[in-house]
Design goal:
Strand 1 and strand 2 form a beta hairpin. By secondary structure, the chain is an alpha/beta fold. The two termini are 13 Å apart. Helix content is 35%, strand content 18%. The radius of gyration is 18 Å and the shape is elongated. The longest helix has 16 residues. The chain has a 5-stranded parallel β-sheet. Strands 1-2 form a two-stranded antiparallel sheet. Strands 7-8 form a two-stranded antiparallel ribbon. The protein has 6 helices and 9 strands, in the order αββαβαββαβαββαβ.
Length: 159
């Protein structure tokens, strides 16, 4: 995970007391920075998936988190995104029985869970637990109903 927190700019800021001026712009970096616990957990689980399933097809229903570096690394690990049609609807027909499907930190809708359950895939749910507790509204459904409906189909590994 440390590689996601590093860059030339971050290095310069840290070497200069977390503050640096480029021309007329001064940038300050908080001494405590990085991903929140739920996002870090989701990323760690996603990275672990390839180790746990070295030869299976692995699909991601959406970006694990909204971070291009993390998402690029997952692509490099041969984790594929579910393709979208011209209307931006996910095309789950590419997912086959026995494949592994990773749900992102911000969850999945009940409609997606139903499709995946019918396909008999291995589901790795990286959903941030705060979403489950808060009952955030997703696509007209309450997210906390999903674990109750699909408990036996969800693979969750605590790291």
């Amino acid at each position: 995970m440390n590689q996601e927190y590093t860059s030339g700019i971050i290095k310069t800021l840290k070497e200069n007391g977390y503050e640096y001026t480029w021309g007329s712009v001064t940038v300050k970096l908080a001494e405590a920075y990085g991903f929140c616990w739920g996002v870090e957990r989701a990323v760690q689980i996603a990275y672990e998936v390839r180790k746990q399933f070295p030869s299976e097809n692995i699909w991601i229903t959406n970006e694990i988190i909204r971070n291009p570096t993390v998402n690029q690394r997952l692509e490099e690990m041969e984790m594929k995104s579910i393709p979208l049609d011209t209307e931006k609807k996910k095309q789950f027909d590419v997912v086959n029985e026995g494949d592994v499907v990773v749900l992102p930190a911000f969850g999945a809708g009940v409609d997606e869970m139903l499709v995946l359950s019918e396909k008999n895939v291995k589901i790795v749910d990286t959903t941030y637990l705060g979403f489950l507790r808060s009952g955030i509204q997703l696509k007209g459904t309450r997210r906390e109903t999903i674990p109750q409906l699909f408990t036996e189909n969800i693979l969750m590994r605590r790291l």
